[in-house]
UniProtKB/TrEMBL annotation:
Lineage: Bacteria, Pseudomonadati, Pseudomonadota, Alphaproteobacteria, Sphingomonadales
Domain of life from the UniProt record: Bacteria
Gene source species: Novosphingobium endophyticum
Single GO MF annotation: heme binding
Cofactor(s) listed in the protein's UniProt record: heme
Annotated signal sequence range: none
InterPro entries the UniProt entry points to: Globin-like_sf (IPR009050), Globin/Proto (IPR012292), Globin_bac-like_CS (IPR019795), Hemoglobin_trunc (IPR001486)
Annotated keywords: Heme, Iron, Metal-binding, Transport
Name of the protein in question: Globin
GO biological-process terms attached to the record: oxygen transport
Length: 134
């Protein structure tokens, strides 16, 4: 890659994993699994009937989180993971469901490089499990 191209495309997980199309595919797969697989029923029941808004929000959040465009964070300054979930009671059951569905979604979309994709899936799963109250 030329120096100019590197400056235009930062060497972050977001760009290395393929950017917006890949993050959108992971999140679509994640919400398809949540919507269709009964093993995520409790997690699904916590969400709004219409998943369209969160299908757009999660890839935008993950973009900023993984070193890509920060539109989600800039749209409402001060908004963060804690603030968007503060009204929710997240127990271990739903936290583990989130973690498992996300690991599956990443594995199903199978972005390259595979080791980086797997590491991202694990970190997101840890994050979700850490949000679950014992
Ligand atoms: C630990 C289990 C989790 C549960 C039970 C949970 C549940 C929810 C629920 C119910 C909503 C509201 C959306 C709706 O009503 O349809 C939401 C929003 C959201 N969650 Fe989670 N969540 C979890 C973990 C995570 C994790 C780990 C992330 C990010 C890595 C995340 C990112 C988001 C984002 C970006 C929104 C949308 C905020 C917005 O733009 O309005 N969540 N979550």
């Amino acid at each position: 890659m030329s120096i100019e191209a590197e400056v235009q495309t930062p060497n972050t997980p977001y760009y290395r994993l393929g950017g917006a199309p890949v993050f959108e595919a992971i999140c679509d797969r994640f919400y398809d699994l949540m919507d269709e697989d009964p093993r995520y029923a409790e997690l699904r029941a916590m969400h709004a009937p219409d998943l369209t808004p969160i299908r757009k929000a999660l890839p935008q959040f993950l973009a900023g989180w993984a070193g890509g465009p920060r539109d989600w964070f800039e749209a409402i300054p001060g908004r963060c993971m804690m603030s968007v979930h503060k009204s929710l009671t997240i127990d271990q059951t739903v936290a583990v469901q989130w973690a498992e569905a996300m690991k599956r979604a990443v594995a199903d979309v199978a972005p390259e490089p595979a080791d980086m994709a797997q590491a991202m899936g694990e970190v997101l799963a840890d994050l979700a499990r850490g949000m679950g109250k014992a």
